[in-house]
Amino acid sequence: MSRQLEASDRNPPPSNRQLLILLGIFVGSILVIIWLIGIIANSLVWLIPPSVEQQIGKIVLPAYEKLAPATPAQNTLNQLLQRLETNLPETQKQQDYRVLYVPEQTVNALALPGNAIVIYSGLVAKAESENEIMMVLGHELGHFAHRDHLRGLMQKLLWQIAIAYIIGDSSWLQSSAATVVNAVSQSQFSQSQELQADEFGLTLLQATYNHVAGATDFFARLSQSRGANYAFFSTHPAPLQRVAQLERLIKQRNYPVLAKSPLPPALR
Q1: Distances (CA, A) of 109 to 136, 138, 252
Q2: For residue 205, what are the CA distances in angstroms to 2, 27, 84?
Q3: 45: which of 15, 16, 158, 241 lies 20 to 30 Å off by Cα?
Q4: Chunked in runs of 10, what are the mean pLDDT values of the chain (268 residues)?
C-alpha cells in the first residue's frame, strides 16, 4: 500500500497551469498549420497550368451544366460577358469564359475551374439594370484574374490531406472526383479576395461603358433586405462594406456616373 501511495505522489494529476500550457500548444499548432496551408496554397496556385485547370473543370462543371439548360437568358449573359472580355488584360483574353445560368432562386454567382461563371436566376431577379449584371460578371472575372477560384480549392484539398494524415484515414482519396467537387462547393473566398474582385469589376465597368453607373446598386439593394437567407451573404462580405469601398474607389479615380442601361429583355 505504501508503494502505491509513493507512486501516486510521484505522478500527481496535471495542474490547471499545465493543462493551459498543453491547450496553448495545441491551439498554436493548429494556427501554424492554417498559416502554412495558406502559404502553400498561395504559392502552388500560380503553378497550376491552364491545362490542369481545364481537367479540374471537366470534373466539376458537369454537375452545374445539368442545371443550366440553353435559354435566351443564358445566351444574353454570355453576350454581356464577351463585351467585358474585350477589356481584360492580354493574358486573360486567351481564356474562353462562359456563363452557366441556373434557374434557381438562390441569390449567388460563382467562379469555377474551367473558366465558367455560374449565375443563379435569383440573383438576376434582384438586378434592375444591365450595368448591375455587368458588375457581377466583372467581379467573377476578377476571381479568375487573381486565381481565387483555384486558391480556395487548393486550401480545401490541403486541409483534407492534413486531416487524413493526422487521423490516419485516407479513404476519401479513393473517390478523387467526389473530393474535388466537394472541395469546390465548400470553398469560400476571403473578404480581401472579394473586395479585390470588386475593384477589378469596377475597372472593367469603367472600361466597358466609360462610366460606372450601377456599380453599387446591387449591393446597396441587398443590404436593405431583411429576414432573407441568401447564399450570397454567406459567401461574400457585408454588402454595405462593399458599397463603401466601391464609392471610395469611384471618388479616388474620379469615375463618372452616368445613365444606366436597362436590363436586356431576356433577363427581365
Answers
A1: 8, 11, 28
A2: 84, 44, 8
A3: 241
A4: 52 68 68 62 70 83 94 97 93 87 92 93 95 96 88 67 57 49 54 88 97 93 62 61 92 96 95
Residue 178: predicted pLDDT: 47
The closest alpha carbon to 198, from 266, 160, 249, 123, belongs to: 249
Dist CA 21 CA 17 (whole Å):
6
Strand ranges across the sheet with 116-120: 98-102, 116-120, 109-112
d(CA 78, CA 97): 9
What type of residue sits at position 180? V
The pLDDT value recorded for residue 143 is 92
Could you tell me which residues are beta bridge partners of residue 99? 117
HSE, CB side, 13 Å, CA atoms: give it for residue 177. 8
Distance CA 130, CA 112 (A): 23
pTM of the model: 0.76
What does the alpha-carbon distance between residue 20 and residue 41 come to, in Å, rounded to a whole number?
31
Residue 43 has a pLDDT of: 65
- Contact indicator for 111, 61 with CB cutoff of 8 Å: no
Please tell me whether residue 100 adopts helix, strand or coil conformation.
Answer: strand
Of 125, 141, 144, 148, give the one whose Cα is nearest residue 218.
125
Cβ 18 vs Cβ 115: under 8 Å: no
- Sort 70 into a burial class: Cβ within 10 Å, 0-12 / 13-18 / 19+: exposed
Determine the Cα–Cα distance for residues 193 and 198; give it in Å rounded to an integer: 9
pLDDT at 139: 95
C-alpha cell recorded at residue 44: 502552388
pLDDT at 228: 43
